[in-house]
Amino acid sequence: AVCTDGVSRVFVADSGDHVIHVLDLDTRKYARWTPTGRALIAPVGLAYDGAGRRLLVADSSAKVVFIFDSDGKFVGELGSGQFKHPCGLAVDPGNGRVFVADVGAHQVVVLSPSGQVLRRLGARGDALGQFNYPTNVAVDHRGRLYVSDSLNFRVQQFTADLEPIRQIGKQGDMPGYFAQPKGIAVDQEDHLYVVDSQFEAVQIFDDSGELLLNFGEPGQGRGQFWLPAAVFIDPRNRIWVADSFNHRVQVFDYLPEVKP
Known about the structure:
There is one protein chain. This protein has 260 residues and is mainly β. 0% of the residues lie in helices and 48% in strands. It contains no helices and 23 strands. The protein has strands at 2-4, 9-14, 19-24, 30-33, 43-49, 54-59, 64-69, 74-78, 86-91, 98-102, 107-111, 117-121, 134-139, 145-149, 154-158, 164-168, 181-186, 192-196, 201-205, 211-215, 228-233, 238-243, 248-253. The strands form 6 sheets. The protein has a 4-stranded antiparallel β-sheet, with no helix packed on it. A 4-stranded antiparallel β-sheet has the order 5-6-7-8, with no helix packed on it. It has a 4-stranded antiparallel β-sheet with strand order 9-10-11-12, with no helix packed on it. β14 and β15 (154-158) form a beta hairpin. The chain is globular and about 50 Å long. The relative contact order is 0.10.
């Protein structure tokens, strides 16, 4: 996973190295964060809570969400005993709710900022509102929730009250379809970005599910991917893609349409 603090720091979850890499783009400093007295086993999800100034790390094998303060100090955990295999994370900036995609339970677990379970969303199945190995979540600026429902080959959209609205995409090998949707993110105009690790590409949809654009292709050059896993969009609309088998993060600029 990859995310930023909205300013200058970039956080990268490295499940192979069992660490969070922290890169400050202003000072050019580098750090490695791990929880004091604990070990990161399989960190696979990241979210920065700007209101609480804390980094949340989902560890799918430890089955908790670790919390670091903005200085990198380990300050606790969320969801102990509540998850089977937590994966993707998102924080609702409007109310601080924490959404956790629990792959093993085929649910999205909704937590209060302090970690209280507020709701468990969904169950295994292929109907609207049900999931089959959900891996990632994102929240748009209207509080709507998006869930990467990976083995149902779709992304589901929910209202701010967590009622299902629609599915976006389905299984296939054409633009607008998915083979293995994973990371998802939403930009400042509520466009939905979906990483497909099998297509080695990122697809972009509007909030009604219409395909707008896709970019990327297999390879090791700039703008090419090898099993991309995650995408994050910062407040400047820079698009960060965790290009996992190329062992790098690639960064793109969103260029909005200029009206005459």
